[in-house]
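Reviewer 2 asked us to include a model.

Predict the structure of this chain.
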Amino acid sequence: MQWSNSLSTRPSLEAAVKEVAQKSLESLGTTANLGLVFISSAFTSEYSRLMPLLKEYLPETVLVGCGGGGIVGMKDDGKPQELEHQPAISLSLAHLPEVTVTAFHICAEQLPDLDSSPDDWCNLIGVPTTDNPQFIILADPFSAKINDLLQGLDYAYPNSAKVGGLASSGPNGNSAGLFCEDRLCEEGAVGVSLSGNIILETIVAQGCRPIGKPYRVTEGERNIVLELEELVSSDQMVGGIKQSPLEALQGLVQNLNEQDRKLAENSLFVGIVRDEFQQNLKQGDFLIRNLIGVDPKAGAIAIGDKVRAGQRIQFHLRDANTSAEDLEILLERYQREVSFETKSTNNATALMFACLGRGEGLYGKPNFDSRLFSSYLNIPISGFFCNGEIGPVGGSTFLHGYTSVFGICRQPS
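Predicted model (structure tokens):
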């Protein structure tokens, strides 16, 4: 298995495509059966020309990609670079022996009902469950019905990793752009399944830290939390006094230090525990969702997801320092728990799908997430800044916000 990546900032589409194709092929040193391309929204008016130009250099390569408000790739000096709001193209090529690469484009009206047989989803993708495929998914933010797609893929392929993001545009809100094989796709989702001698591992950095104690939802309706009980046991399973969410939140905020109280005014979120059986919770075990609003009269809170009685939740805070610490904790954990040798720097790769709300706007300096990742894993990295990030939490795949999701492709050890 071999991977390569090249990044171009040439303002001419023809020149940029030529540069990334020639450099990536030269670095790969062999034929490529997979290509992933991410192109800046600065080229929006020329999106329809991208794939025909790439196919001139890569006629036999399976190609998928999308447009982004920011692009991630490797500089000539071997360091990753995040290019926001400027012309850029990032091209990753892979030579994947003993791996079957299957590209797909799915429109929303093609999706089976969520109560359909897993076979219907397998027929849609064109890959049987027994192949145990790994998925890279890129979707239009408006037309893809991405939550239904992810739920269906989890149902049909429960043991398969799924990563990706929603295509994004620039500040003017231009077309996001999806690419599959030789064409521009105007809607839905595109992607590839990778089956065979390959592993896709994931890191989902949601950029939050828990505050206070966890609670169990004792009453909820749709996305409204009506009543909570504080979990008081060491295994975080035994409940205490029941109270309204607003009472719990007010008590929590009063006990925060001044810096965190100020942060809670604008950066307060709710984390939902996804694994019902996990007792000792740690950072990264929560699905982070927005705190949408508060009903002072009822003492209820509304969050950006459905809730039900019995779920455990915990309030979270997010800022630049927390985001950096969260990613570093997850990278250290990955390095400790998943050991693999890189015989060279190009026998594995990483794909980075980061929220448009991260990057230089969050950290105050460029290349933060990608450089931090590279300080732990010296492999090529590419990707883009998304309108939403796709990655697993607690065994299921979700659409996230304000997140950096990394997919690490490598051979089995």
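The chain has nine helices and 26 strands. The chain has two domains: 2-206+323-410, 212-255+268-318. We have added this to the supplementary material.
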